[in-house]
Amino acid sequence: MTGRSALPPPGQTQAREMAPEMAREPAWTTAWVRGYASLFGHRDGAGDIVRPGAFARSLARQTPLPMLWQHDPCEPIGMWTGLCEDRRGLQVLGRLNLGVARAREAAVLIGTGDLSGLSIGFKARRAQRDRAGRQLIDIDLWEISLVTFPQVNGARAQLLAPPSGGLTNTSRRPA
After folding, report:
1. Which CATH class is domain 28-152?
2. Which of 28, 54, 77, 157 is least surrounded by CB atoms within 10 angstroms?
3. Contact, 120 vs 144, CB < 8 A?
4. Bridge partners, residue 48, by sequence
5. Residues belonging to the active site
6. Any idea where the Prohead serine protease domain is (predicted)?
7. How far is CA 53 from the centre of its chain?
């Protein structure tokens, strides 16, 4: 990713907190991932285009979202603790739980560049049909997965260096 990030670096909080606050953890138990889970104005492989503001309802809930492996609900690998809509799309910050074998594998794959895809699991609450698919106006976001083949090519993640301390659960609503 290039440019300024709307999310704070790990270890810093934003004005709005998600409950409950995470306890400080040793750096070796977690790895941090940041990226874009969805991009506005890009038609995905299913024919959907997400519009700006579509995640507002989900962001207002201020609860962490499950991080899954390849959209498999039987393979949770962490939690997304920071979500923010910016001009580009839905920017996310998440914690891989390295106590889970698949999360350790994911951290290695992301760190080496062998895997970087992100994909959202959602229900469309409001959409408009167009010739090639749907314009998604209001989305109920259920989960965000690390995937091999993202529906939107630019939906990518990168591994961050572990923070020196913990991270407070945060969410920022669109300005």
Report:
1. alpha beta
2. 28
3. yes
4. 134
5. 71, 119, 143
6. 30-158
7. 16
pLDDT score of 29? 85
CA 73, 64, 52: angle at the middle one, nearest 5?
A: 95
- Residue 42: the pLDDT is 96
Domain boundaries, given as residue ranges, for the chain: 28-152
Residue 85 has pLDDT above 90, yes or no: yes
pLDDT of 22 higher than 50: no
What confidence score (pLDDT) does residue 30 get? 87
Q: Which residues contact 75 (CB under 8 A, 6 or more apart)?
A: 68, 69, 102
Two tokens, residue 9: 């670096």
Specify the DSSP class assigned to residue 158. Answer: E
Q: CA 18, CA 155: separation in Å to the nearest integer?
A: 24
DSSP, collapsed to helix, strand or coil, labels residue 102 as helix
CA distances to 67, 78, 140, 142 from 57, in Å: 19, 22, 7, 12
